[in-house]
Design goal:
alpha/beta, Rossmann fold, 243 residues
Length: 243
């Protein structure tokens, strides 16, 4: 039997489902399931290559992908993969029953144009389900004040990802606070049905024990009170097209 790594042991000890902990991806998938009509046409914006979220979304309906990266064509969960080459999505109006983006909005330079296109391709009543970083979290703050080459150099290493992991994409964080999210969604005419700020297990502490414990302490602190919610790592949201 293979011996567990220290990362696996620490996650099992401090973030065990047996103790009621729900990891971020599981919680995001549950949000998708609750919001997305079963059996509908789903557009995953920023689908990327094959991944756990695409595989899950494909169980909920007919999944189509859109991405500026041609690697998305290798995503085996997609019914179709389209290349994004401009602000306009290559689809007809009201083509999809739901849209989803998972760690994508932080890479969007013009969020108003993005949200307008989401609204255009959604059918009436359709949801846009989002997971994206909160700009006020330490990871996003560090990424904002360091050059992209530095972020690309250290981000995957700190998360304990292998050499084959994709380099981080450039980030803008133009929509990545609760206030900006609510304001710009309202301007476009998408209703904010759900918005939560969430702090989960310290993925950036997976490179060393010396980092794991301070970042775990941070997680415990910001989850202890709603007064600290704006320092949590992620925004989980559902936007709804009412008309």
């Amino acid at each position: 039997m293979r011996a567990l790594t220290w990362q696996e042991r620490y996650i099992a000890r401090f973030y065990s489902p047996d103790q009621g902990w729900v990891d971020g991806t599981t919680e995001f998938h549950a949000l998708c399931k609750a919001a997305i009509p079963q059996g509908g046409r789903i557009l995953e914006i920023g689908a990327g290559p094959s991944n756990a979220t695409s595989r899950y979304l494909a169980t909920l309906g007919e999944l189509h992908g859109l991405d500026p990266d041609p690697d998305a064509i290798r995503n085996d969960s997609l019914t179709s993969a389209s290349l994004l080459t401009s602000d306009r999505f290559p689809f007809e109006d009201q083509s999809f029953d739901a849209c989803v983006s998972n760690y994508v909005l932080e890479h969007v330079a013009d969020p108003r144009a993005h949200l307008r296109e989401v609204k255009r391709v959604l059918s009436r009543g359709g949801p846009y389900v989002v997971r994206t970083p909160n700009r006020f979290h330490y990871v996003a703050l560090a990424a904002s004040i360091t050059p992209h080459w530095f972020h690309a150099l250290v981000a995957n290493r700190l998360r304990g990802l292998g050499a084959g992991a994709h380099d981080p994409y450039p980030t803008f964080y133009a929509l990545n606070t609760e206030a900006a999210f609510r304001r710009q969604s309202a301007e476009i005419g998408l209703r904010v049905e759900t918005l939560r700020l969430v702090e989960k297990e310290p993925s950036y502490g997976m490179s060393s024990r010396a980092l794991f414990f301070p970042l775990m302490a941070y997680e415990r602190l910001v989850n202890a009170t709603e007064l600290a919610k704006n320092l949590r790592s992620n925004i989980f949201a559902v936007l709804r097209k009412d008309a």
